[in-house]
Amino acid sequence: MQEHLTKLDLAHIWHPCTQMKDHENLPLIPIRKAKGLYLYDFNDKAYMDCVSSWWVNLFGHANEYINQKIKAQLETLEHVILAGFTHEGIITLSQRLCALLPTQFQKCFYADNGSSAVEVALKMSFHYHLNKGQKRYKFLSLSNAYHGETLGALSVGDVALYKETYKPLLLECLSTPVPQSEDFEKELKALKNTLEKEGKNICAFILEPLVQCAGNMHCYSVKFIDEALKLCREFNVQVIFDEIAVGFGRTGEMFALEYCEQKPDFLCLSKGITGGYLPLSVVITSDEIYNAFYAPYEAQKAFLHSHSYTGNALACAAANAVLDIFESQNVLENNMVLSSFIWEKWQGLKSFDCVGNLRHCGMIFAFDLVGFEGVRKGLEVFKKGLEYGLLLRPLGNTIYLMPPYILTKEQASYIIESLVKILKSLTR
Ligand SMILES: *Cc1c(COP(=O)(O)O)cnc(C)c1O
């Protein structure tokens, strides 16, 4: 069965983020079912989902509570056009999201994936300035940033692997260096220079607060973020926080913006919002920004952007269920305990010569394989991980753990013990 499916798959499916030729000798793994941390293939082999299925899953696969809520929603309303119509799930969800955020966050604009949320925030910022009579047309972002792979989102990103080929198609954007340590004087100076030169042309500065996840899990200074936001204010440049990966408890707090004194104008959320069940994303902003678009129809100030599945009712039911779990189960407190437990064990990996730059932030743990420049050692770790029943999906030679929050200490210990064995088996 497994082999049959793999063959059929390769006959018809072009997979994301994949050189398909790799699958000539790297078998695809069809998954038959999933439960909790585990994915099961057609031979009933289990894999621990160490990457939350691309950072989306929070409370395990086939979570009984979320299942039940989606099933109930399915029986009443699966989807309805969100233009001119609305539904209870999305109203409840929006109210709850705003209640979790600082008071200025009052308006939710929905889309159905992370990249689209970034597109929405970019267009909204541009359009805001336009409605205020200012023609600004540039965006500023950090080096090593990742904001998705549609053309606008790719334009503000900086991960060469995704961007290089498509450069001729992209918007011209400005980039400023991300700090490499707590000493960020140089980076702040660079930002100031750019703002002095280009500030009046820049709509917004977009950044992933605390951790650049796709940028090899680069953790950087929250103090820098505060200083950077202050500078942006001086130049009337708006700020977009892309919390698509770090939102919903990943960094320890519910949202990364809670670590910052300065707050952004736009907050982009997706990934964990539905607990990894269904596509949904949202851009949350202030009444002040919303009001810049609020005018008689003829004034042509409306924000015109839509996706067919915007605000899907099933996805909203999943999102509401996720918020229920956060409310009822002390998720953040439990994560704090689990995070220190994992971090302590993770640091034990320091003893390997090939392990460098161990780091963590909340429920994100990472290290780099060093001494293998230009060699796809991460791929070797991936393959060996499968033998231990681990789904690891290294970012190049960065190995990371970004597990669902239902991970137990025993499971965490097993993962790290397996990593020890894998690292021992790596040859130069
Ligand atoms: C995943 C991600 C995106 C893009 O989301 P998609 O749903 O994959 O389009 C954007 N920004 C960040 C920080 C992400 O991690």
From TrEMBL:
The modification N6-(pyridoxal phosphate)lysine is found at residue 271. Signal peptide: none annotated. It comes from the Bacteria. The record marks 17 as: Participates in the substrate recognition with KAPA and in a stacking interaction with the adenine ring of SAM. It catalyses: (8S)-8-amino-7-oxononanoate + S-adenosyl-L-methionine = S-adenosyl-4-methylsulfanyl-2-oxobutanoate + (7R,8S)-7,8-diammoniononanoate. Substrate binds at residues 54, 146, 271, 306, 393. GO terms for molecular function: adenosylmethionine-8-amino-7-oxononanoate transaminase activity; pyridoxal phosphate binding. GO terms for cellular component: cytoplasm. One of its GO terms (biological process) is biotin biosynthetic process. InterPro entries: Aminotrans_3, Aminotrans_3_PPA_site, BioA, PyrdxlP-dep_Trfase, PyrdxlP-dep_Trfase_major, PyrdxlP-dep_Trfase_small. Its cofactor is pyridoxal 5'-phosphate. Pathway: Cofactor biosynthesis; biotin biosynthesis; 7,8-diaminononanoate from 8-amino-7-oxononanoate (SAM route): step 1/1. Keywords: Aminotransferase, Biotin biosynthesis, Cytoplasm, Pyridoxal phosphate, S-adenosyl-L-methionine, Transferase. It holds the Pfam family Aminotran_3. Its main location: cytoplasm. Its EC number is 2.6.1.62. Pyridoxal 5'-phosphate binds at residues 114-115, 242, 307-308. It is found in: Cytoplasm. Belongs to the class-III pyridoxal-phosphate-dependent aminotransferase family. BioA subfamily. NCBIfam families: bioA, PRK05964.1. Catalyzes the transfer of the alpha-amino group from S-adenosyl-L-methionine (SAM) to 7-keto-8-aminopelargonic acid (KAPA) to form 7,8-diaminopelargonic acid (DAPA). It is the only aminotransferase known to utilize SAM as an amino donor. Homodimer. This is Adenosylmethionine-8-amino-7-oxononanoate aminotransferase. The gene is bioA.
